[in-house]
Amino acid sequence: MNDHSQHLAQQDLGHGASVEVFNGGFVTVTGNRLGESSGIVCADPQEVWSCCKRANRSELLESEGRNNALARYAGTLTKKGLSSDETLTLVLAKNGEFSEPLSEDEIRNTIAKSISKWAHPSAEINPDTWRDACKTVRQLSQEPVRYIIPLLMPENCLTAVAAHAFNCKTWFALTMAWAISERLPLWGFEIPQSLPVIYHVPEMNEAWVRQYAMTIGIRDTENFLFRAMEQGVWRLDDPRMLRACEGRVAFLDTQGFFNPADDGNDYRQALRFAELCFNLLNAGCLGITALFHLAKSGSRDSKGRTVEPEWTLENSIIGSAGYGAILRSCLRIKNLNPDLNDPDVWLYAQGMKNPGLKPFQLEGPMPLRLKVAPGESPYLRELLSGDDQTARISELLDQGKSQREVSSATKISLGKVNKIAKQWKQAKEMDI
């Protein structure tokens, strides 16, 4: 083996079969444990690995005994803060993976009693043990903060994507999701590793989802799964949702289908959505990205035109105070092309809770491409001001661009470009 084929991982499947995955695209499969229906003969090595783990999950559990495996799994869930009912639901689902599942009565008579004790230990709490539940700085985990996408999407947290309707939220999120699943370059951000994705989009039927996917270039892979309108909606505490998101990055398009709150300004209802996200993350979800619709602005100027208020976290995500530190990233986007039906979109993106992230701009037609890199883009107020438009048009005219080319590059009407070009020409003549 050369330096480009270092060993990554190995899975012993039993019965003389095993799988090894190496850097550089090499995979070794020994034995025929998976059979002809596994679909891995010509698959990507990482997909082979995923397939092997799925195929062998139940036998790995059974090797240590069904009761012991389920008890260990239940203990892990209760330690992460899941309720006894939620833990029992997941244990029953896990039991269904065994080749010979335990009866539900047997689980309820044994493991369920332990779950109740672990989840509600108040009767047996010794107050003198309080120190065991606290940590000094040195005792805290030494793991650094990790990102699924640097600056944009932290791991094990809730990320919000906020925009008005028909402002490219789904295009934006799908492009991120596909890049995560394949570790593709994304608008200048380097994704550290490929992670499986599940994209929940109950507001869009399969035909539309497929059209979006084909435009972006999403290929058929187990690393990227969809749940569209035809599959219905899973609540965030549905056992199928908890299991489906385990080991995957979850996208919720849009959060209104998954948030039980009927009043975004109600702090307690916001806390409930945060609790559901907390449980989903603690059940093994790698990160949640939820798409939020913005409330319409009621502010108008003296001529009756809608005024864009200064962007803040509070007016980007209603109820954000209730989400607390679960919400670690908020990306607000806006299509600056006045014609929202024009495929040549001009998307401005700014972080509302993303330390170190500077605004950036993307452009169409789809898939979205980087137009102006972070750190090089003006802020929105500057982009929308007339003075900035004059400066940008003058700069392009100085470069020898035609008025039509300037109009195309800036998405400013040709008539307005012509008007500013006349002023630019007059200023040049005066300088001469």
Q: Report the sheet-strand fraction.
A: 15-25%
What's the structural domain tally? 4
Distance between the termini: 70 Å
CATH superfamily of the largest domain: P-loop containing nucleotide triphosphate hydrolases
CATH architectural category of the largest domain: 3-Layer(aba) Sandwich
How do the strands line up in the largest sheet?
8-7-9-10-6-11-12-13-14
SSE order, one letter for each helix or strand: EEEHHHHHEEEHEHEHEHEHHEEEEHHHH
**What is the gyration radius calculated from CA atoms?**
26 Å
Total helical elements: 15
Write the layout of secondary structure elements.
Elements (H helix, E strand, L loop, with lengths): L6 E8 L2 E6 L3 E5 L14 H18 L3 H14 L4 H12 L8 H6 L1 H9 L27 E3 L3 E2 L3 E6 L5 H14 L14 E4 L5 H11 L7 E4 L11 H6 L4 E4 L14 H16 L4 E7 L19 H4 L3 H4 L3 E9 L10 E6 L8 E4 L5 E4 L7 H5 L1 H13 L4 H8 L3 H18 L1
Parallel strand pairs: 6-10, 6-11, 7-8, 7-9, 9-10
Antiparallel strand pairs: 1-2, 2-3, 4-5, 11-12, 12-13, 13-14
Helix pairs in contact: 2-3, 2-5, 13-14, 13-15, 14-15
